Give the backbone structure.
Amino acid sequence: MARKLSLLLFLGLFALAGCSNDDDAAEDGDAGNDGVLITTEDASISTVNDTERTIGRLTSKTAPSITAEVSGQIQVIHIEEGDEVARGDTLVEIDPEPYELALAQARTDVRRLEVSLRTQRRELERSEELLEDGYVTQSEFDAIEGEVESLEGDLEGARAQVSNAERDLRNTTIRAPVDGAIDERMVSEGDYTSPGEPMLTVVSQDLLRIRLPFPETVAQRLEVGQPVQLRAPVAGGDVDGSISELRPGLAEQSRTFEAIVNVENPGGWRQGGSVNAVVLVEQRESVTVPNDAIIQRPSGEVVYVIEDNTAHERTVEVGRRGSDRTEIRNGLDEGEVIAVDGAGFLSDEAAIRTDEE
């Protein structure tokens, strides 16, 4: 009796399992005889932004290296690295005494020559009167006139020496050529400096020069004037700019070429920092479809065009891919109905049904 009960229980469970499998088959058979359940959408024309992305480096457009224009011992340094300075601020003072003495000597030479020239001009006037009366010869008059001309030339040279001495004296005080910050200081008080020797580097943070590296394969796609959207990791907000120049050569180490963008500092951007850049290479109107509509098959990327509740496999040429839509460069026309959700379960000539049905 127990064996009969066990057999009946087993047959009952088997029957229940069969019913469950039939129900699952009915659910999966959304394909069934009625076709695969999908959603559809019309292929539409959209604006496609063709872009190139890179990470650039921030540099200061104005970063003069300040050098000495006169030689001498450095007496006072008014700044330290990192200090903010305004144009015209005093940065360094060189011992002015030798240049003060040189200026005094030059001015003395000018006064001496002015006195000599006045005396010689009066002599020339008297000689001219005596020449008319015959008391001096023409050659004597010409000699005096030549002396006047020589003194005039000497006086002009002496006045130039005064100007040079005044300029040298002014150059003993080193002033900031631009607004900015002291990036580097290479001298100390007591050092002896000479013309052309670097002393300081001032970095202006107001105008920035952004270097954007690109692979050489992209070089032919970029042009001066193309819009660029910039974002620095250290500061929020986008900054709009444009390519101002393209470097003609490639970097030796990286084999990349650089596009240059000049912008005003929006605030918080610093030389040496990085910036994310998106260059708008081209903007065009193209057919686009949802990303889910594009299916990878052995023949390539395809979409399924729906006609009379039947899916027709269509190989397409894909262009730019966006976050939710993809450009179709060839193989699909505007307005054609395509499968979206469920497209991955389709095959060519498969029957379909939509959620509306």
